[in-house]
Amino acid sequence: MAPQPARRSRWIAVLLLLAFFAQVATAARQTSITLDEPLHIASGYACLLTGDYRLVEEHPPLLKMLQAAPLLLADPPLQDPRTSAGWASADLIAVAREIVVAYRPLDPLVYAARVPTMLVGVLLGALVYRWAADLARRGREGWALLALALFAFDPNMLAHAGVAATDLGAAAGIVAVLFAFWRWARSARNPRLGHALVAAGALGIALGVKNTALLLGPVVAVLILRAWPSTRTTRYLVQAGVVAAGAFLILWATYRFEVGPVPGLPFAVPAASHALPLIRLREHMREGHSAFLLGRNYHHGDWRYFPVALGLKTPPLTLGLGLLSVVISAATRRWHRAVNLAWMCVWLFPVLYFATSLVSGINIGYRHLLPVLPFAYVFIAASLSVRAPVALTVQRLVRAGLLLFLGGYALVTLQLHPWHLAYFNLLAGGPDGGYRYLVDSNLDWGQTWKALRSYLDDRGITDFYLSSYTINDPRAYGLDYKPLPPWPEAPPVLPQRYNPPPGVYAISSTQLQGVVVADPEMFDAFRKLEPVARIGHAMFVYEVGASPAIEWVAQCATPSAPLPVETLREGFGIGAEVPLLNFDCTQSWIVPSGNGRYVLPRTAGHDWAPLAQARLAYEQTQTGWVPPYAIYEWRAAEPPAGPAPQAPAGRRVAVGEVLSFVGYGAPELHIGETAVVEAWWRIKDQPTGPLSLMVHLLGPDGTVVAVGDALGVPGDQWTPGGLLIQRHTLVIPAGATPGAYALHLGAYTLPDVQRLPVSDGGGAPADSVVAALLEVTSP
């Protein structure tokens, strides 16, 4: 009989496995079909029903066939894939749309396909517990419960155990192979055929689940060579051959012992269809995949992707205990044991796998790191099981603290239920902050449609827009939507993307961040708004109200090329009646009367005081067919604010019939230095011809010391009632003397340089405004 503590640990392990299954099973009922599930289901169903493997896509079919097996009993039955329009051309998407996406009712079908993955998840948890218990110090097998608890409440494991996909199955297969191999190879002096056959079975199954298992080849080869010096027996080598041959036979059985041609080979080979997923995966990696990382969209791999994903989506407790385990191994001088066969089975594959991920051309999700996590749980439990030379009281305090942390770990996961996929740790700001760093299957895989339907029904909303990338049909969940890009029914680029019309918008966080859409910045107007709801932390709902009509659009045409007129009118949804104004924002600024928009290059024009009142409404941050730009919304409810211009006290000075002087702003003036004076003018009317604004600095003797004439807003762009601000550059000569200098402002016509008359309503006529006396000092 097993000792009482061991039996108690096993019962607790059973309860943890039940808790894992309960979380997955209930979450799977509440989430909608995800992006990849119809492809896996259709592929597995076709292979299972027909024996034809043309639809295996990028990964072998074994787990997909297991997921599709319950669907053989579906009522009504699924359509025979051979009758699909996409069958002849091996178009998996077309077949999936016909036999899975179009099936009604969809929920029972999807849930049935998810159940095998749930059971594989339970098996993986059992393997983690057993391996950790076997590696723990004798009498301290209870530490294996820590490994199982980390597994059972890890949101990443829960998320992928509840969908009909291959990622969790790959992790389970890889762990099973190395655990079985360790059990066989550790008795290399007297190797057991039964253990070898189990290892062969596990390896064959893993190879039939996902191409990830191909990395087991070099790992197993290294481990066999590592065990060889301790045995040197013929039986060991024979059994190693049995492992290889048995694994191949099981993989071959997955393809029903077919023999056929492989592209590039002049002869037929067994399991020829296994080459198809390898070929398609290679093509996918060569072509790349749209991805998002840390605010940047790209198409080919970035080595930072998986380190960032590991840091932001791994629970802090796992990260902390992993680091502590490394420290303990170093402190107890156990590094020499790293080449021990048992420890090599734990660390060799995850290290090789993670290193390989750094050069991957496909960056689509943390799910590709799932095979690393179970080894981390086992390593943590085995490392912490070491007996430390501390008092019993300290040991009890450590255990109590660990139980407290585990309780918090489980509570966070339970609070997130059923949106395990959306988990991000505190470094990312939690589930609601993760979209700023990673999207796609890290957060948003299409799982929120059921919850979106409930949200809309509760509020009586029947008219709404939807953006989501998928082959699935939201109408299967009663979502009657208006399509936004990238739906095929919608235009490729969102009309009125700078100024969305009023309505309710549901936008997937993946599309919000510009993944798999024609323009990565397409939905930036929504990124500048606060959503009214975040369904499952992944689907953002916006309620856009009616905004004041746009009365003008002012575009800075320098230093970058301006946006074309048709782009502006289409993007804002405005007609020819709305004036489009151009100005040079490196030296001037205009505030037309009424409500409008500013379009500025991201490299200039953002330091003007009135812009502080405007709302940043849209940005294109990446260079495309035009340079990056920003759009600001201006509402005319308040007068322009900023550093108050210093107007002559009690004076309202008119310059000709076109301007009235508002005031100026000037820095301290120093001899031999350059200063920028800012002049503010109210526009009364458009000039009849070209002109320029003047700023002259006159010395104490009345001579002109510095001139800064300029105009960055052509007269034909002026709008009566608006504000014009011009910056003038004055260079104070090195030979000037300190004293009070008069600042003269005005305007003159071109090309005859005739100054416009200046009048303050009572004084003598003049040709300039004496704005102030400015003190010029030595530097």
Summarize the model shown:
The chain is 37% helix and 17% strand. The chain is an alpha+beta fold.
Protein model, in words:
With 779 residues, the protein is an alpha+beta fold. It has 4 domains: 407 residues, no CATH class; 97 residues, no CATH class; 83 residues; 123 residues, Coagulation Factor XIII, Chain A, domain 1 (Distorted Sandwich), CATH 2.70.50. It has 21 helices and 25 strands. The protein has a 6-stranded antiparallel sheet with strand order 12-22-19-17-16-24, with no helix packed on it. It has a 5-stranded mixed sheet with strand order 6-5-7-9-8. Strands 11-10-13-15-14 form a 5-stranded mixed sheet. β3 and β4 form a beta hairpin. It is elongated and about 115 Å long.
Describe the structure using short key phrases.
alpha+beta; 4 domains; 6-stranded antiparallel beta sheet; 5-stranded mixed beta sheet; 21 helices; 25 strands; 17% strand; elongated
CA radius of gyration is: 35 Å
SS-based structural class? alpha+beta
The mean pLDDT is 90
Number of strands: 25
Report helical residue fraction.
25-40%
Strand numbers in spatial order across the main sheet: 12-22-19-17-16-24
Question: How much of the residues is beta strand, in percent?
Answer: 15-25%
Calculate the terminal CA-CA distance, rounded to whole Å: 94 Å
Question: Can you summarize the main beta sheet?
Answer: 6 strands, antiparallel
Number of helices: 21
Shape: elongated
Give the quaternary arrangement of the chains. Answer: single chain
**Low-confidence blocks of residues:** none
Q: What is the domain tally?
A: 4
